[in-house]
Design a protein that fits this description.
Strand content: 15-25%
Radius of gyration: 20 Å
CATH architecture of the largest domain: 2-Layer Sandwich
CATH class of the largest domain: Alpha Beta
Structural class: alpha+beta
Distance between the termini: 38 Å
Number of strands: 6
Order of helices and strands: EHHEEHEEHEHH
Shape: flat
């Protein structure tokens, strides 16, 4: 199956639409004309299932930790920011309990940081948390992230004027090396 920017039909853009029904119900789904695979046979491999491949923007796994143990607060805030509940178009979010720290977390997949920047979502979470009298105690990015996403956060919070990516030391060094090696 092709998804996101590679999708062959609008209902295939979202990977969750393709996955809907889980492995157990996919046998009946794959038999319909609408869910015939983009490539390969219309049958499920008994141990590997089906494959979905897509071109998409970078995904940033971004989590915000709240200074409370009340999961219902994390759930409400998650609903306010995630796309499926009317929030930001490029945010998938859930509330989770971090048992070892006795706090809750808003766990997010940011699917297009260019159209929905990290700082914008963070500000809404902060505002919503304040409504419940709950502080933000930290945040984390899990895995790799594009430098530009972090530069946008710095530009926003530091109110940088006339800032250019060319002033980032590591970027200049990498550009120099790339030019030298041509």
């Amino acid at each position: 199956y092709l998804y996101e920017d590679s999708a062959s039909a609008p209902e295939r853009v979202s990977l969750s639409n393709i996955r809907k029904g889980e492995f157990e119900n996919f046998a009946s789904k794959i038999e319909s004309e609408q869910w015939k695979p983009d490539f390969g046979p219309s049958e499920i491999h008994p141990s590997a299932g089906v494959v979905a491949i897509g071109c998409r923007e970078y995904l940033i796994a971004f989590n915000v930790n709240l200074g409370t143990d009340k999961i219902e607060i994390a759930d409400r805030i998650s609903r306010s920011i995630r796309n499926i509940s009317g929030g930001f178009r490029y945010v998938k979010a859930l509330g989770f309990r971090l048992e070892d720290r006795d706090i809750v977390q808003i766990s997010m997949n940011m699917t297009n940081y260019r159209k929905t920047p990290l700082f914008r979502v963070f500000e809404v979470i902060k505002s919503e948390a304040e409504r419940y009298g709950v502080p933000i105690v930290g945040s984390e990015i899990v895995g790799l992230t594009p430098l530009q996403a972090l530069v946008e956060v710095a530009e926003h919070y530091l109110r940088l004027e006339k800032f250019s990516g060319s002033t980032i030391l590591e970027k200049r060094v990498l550009d120099f090396i790339a030019d030298r090696d041509k």
